[in-house]
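Archive transcription. Copying these from loose printouts into the bound notebook so they stop getting lost. Printout 1 of 2:
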Amino acid sequence: MTLKECYQAMDASYDEVISRLRSERMVQKFALKFLNDGSYQLLISSMEEGNCEEAFRAAHTIKGVCQNLAFTHLAQSSSALTEALRSGMSPEAPGLLEKVKADYQRTVSAIQEFQASL
């Protein structure tokens, strides 16, 4: 699997990230580092504990990283969750978390498949 195919598998914007980071080597480096980022686990545990402040921070971090890497769907869902948590735990936050979980799994699965092909 190529890096471009990885982006296609997660329905992300390869052209956007290349225009931003300028080289496939840099994109690959940061995409693979995403697998070790602890923000997603922090988001999940914070939501389970009802810690809205930590959940907001984690969702915001995920949103920023995903926008920089052009992980389109995860950037959008984490952005929606970030806004739902901005002023406290909103009623729609749990449903938005489910969308983040699905998008995260799709993104991570594509990156892991890419990683396995290296």
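Printout 2 of 2:
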Amino acid sequence: MRVLGIDPGTGILGFGVVDFVAGKPPKMIDGGVISTPPHTPIAERLKEIYDGLAEIIATTKPDVMAIEKLFFARNITTAISVAEARGVVILVAAQNDLPIHEYTPLQIKQTLTGYGRAEKNQVQEMVKIHLNLKTIPKPDDAADALATAITHDLMTTEKM
């Protein structure tokens, strides 16, 4: 199963593509970010996210998309823009017939580290270990997206 993990954001949207094959270690296929310039009209930023994500899907051909849920935001303006980016992500997934699964930050931390209040660096270290990487993926948004993909695999494997 190939999972496209997403850490949504308007300025920086993290993505990570991971292959999970029974009996084999997970393999990172791609990871990175889609960045949009600040002070650009929101419609242009959302279109950049749409186009970039559509290209990633066309290139990597994932079987499923795992998205980090917007759980809490201190800044309402940030929350709204992240929600708009999530809407674009969900639209692109639906247009490509990708099943969508959503996970809260708490679920991701709990699944990867065993502790729901784990620090960001602990989650990133577990991403490195799970994917057998030499270094923690950068930037942080890409590591978070990979963590979301790994969470999907671990949570769906546990249910079987």
